[in-house]
Amino acid sequence: MAHIDDPQTQKANLAYIRNSMNEPMLEKSHEHELARKWLEEKDEKALHELVRSHTRLVVSIASKFRNYGLPMGDLIQEGSIGMMQAANRFDISRDLRFSTYASWWIRSSIQDYVLRNWSIVRTGTTAAQKSLFFKFRALRAKIENKKEREGLNDDDRNDIADTLNVRLKDVTDMESRLSGSDPSLNVKIGEDENGEWQDLLTDESASPEDIVQDMKDGKTRSAWLNKALGQLSEREEKIIRDRHLGYETVTLETLGNDLGISKERVRQLEQRAMIKLKDTMGDFVEERSDLFLQR
User: Fold this and answer.
1) Dist. CA 118–CA 65, nearest whole Å
2) Alpha-carbon distance 107 to 94, whole Å?
3) I want to staple 46 with a disulfide (CB 3.0 to 4.6 A). Which of 37, 113, 142, 173 is the partner?
4) Which of 267, 233, 235 is CA-nearest to residue 251?
5) What is the rounded CA–CA span in Å between residue 262 and residue 244?
6) Are 210 and 192 in contact (CB under 8 A)?
7) Tens digits of per-residue pLDDT, 59-75?
């Protein structure tokens, strides 16, 4: 699935790459000072100098992903996003060059972009599956060169699975995906070739009417939940919010430390609060099942 930049874009990319090679290298003490100014003072001028001086690093890492058929400009842009993340997280107290720290973030950002855009078939997002995606070709080439033949047999696939600590099925699936290409939805079908494959696809998503109704029902249920939470004690409400309504679930032990009680006592209070919530919210409807979205 190749993506070819137009000549004007290629020219702009080359100019950017040339300019990046001309950016001056920074002394370690200076780059740490720039990072400090950005992290502590939000000095954008310092951030721009720090980032510009490391654009060659982004270009270098991005160039290693050219074989996936994605635009070089996009790879560089994604790498630059990773470098910005590194600048926001860099620990200036550590005796570490910014380039060493930023390399991981740049590579990770580009890898995520490749996984999202290389194929319409998802390749998986776990660390092991990412490793399989980016290392499969190299391992296959190494095996083929060593055994002086093309293609893999079952023993070869098992060796790759063991090396990368993934299932054999993951290896065979990845081999199939990387050896094939994404079929076009505009391929003609039928004897008269008046139809296309996309004409046979059905939209299984909710209708606009259902979406609007779900939004309305969701707001109603949120109002019920907030009202029910108001019937709990302050301690019970904190437990429910931290355990079930936050972005990340707080452990029983952490809550116990915060509240000055044992982990087992937190669990008991959580169970009691959940019963109270169900009873209170049950009063809002005729049937308990009406509390849940039916889709």
Assistant:
1) 11
2) 21
3) 37
4) 267
5) 19
6) no
7) 999 988 887 778 888 89
